[in-house]
Amino acid sequence: MEPAVLTNETQLIQQAVQILLEKLGTTDTNRFLALKSTERLDSVLRHQTWQKDLDKDSFFDEVF
Predict the structure, then answer these.
(1) What is the pLDDT of residue 38?
(2) pTM (2 decimals)?
(3) How many angstroms separate the most distant Cα atoms in the chain?
(4) Average pLDDT, consecutive stretches of 10 residues, N- to C-terminus, the chain (64 residues)
(5) What is the 3-state secondary structure (H, E, C) of the chain?
(6) Domain locations in the chain?
(7) Residues contacting 37, CB < 8 A, separation 6+
């Protein structure tokens, strides 16, 4: 049995995209790669909630 050899990051990405293209086609591969992660959405919602309750004048006084 041969030891496992890890693929470098660039090769791994290239192989993964190639497999996606073969299995999904160009359009669905692009759609998949453009999907938004829920983590990003959560941080945006958290920021919007913070801004909603923010007193702008107090905040500016504290910062400046």
Answers:
(1) 62
(2) 0.49
(3) 68
(4) 78 94 95 78 83 89 86
(5) CCCCCCCCHHHHHHHHHHHHHHHHHHHHHHHHHCCCCHHHHHHHHHHHHHHHCCCHHHHHHHHC
(6) 9-63
(7) none
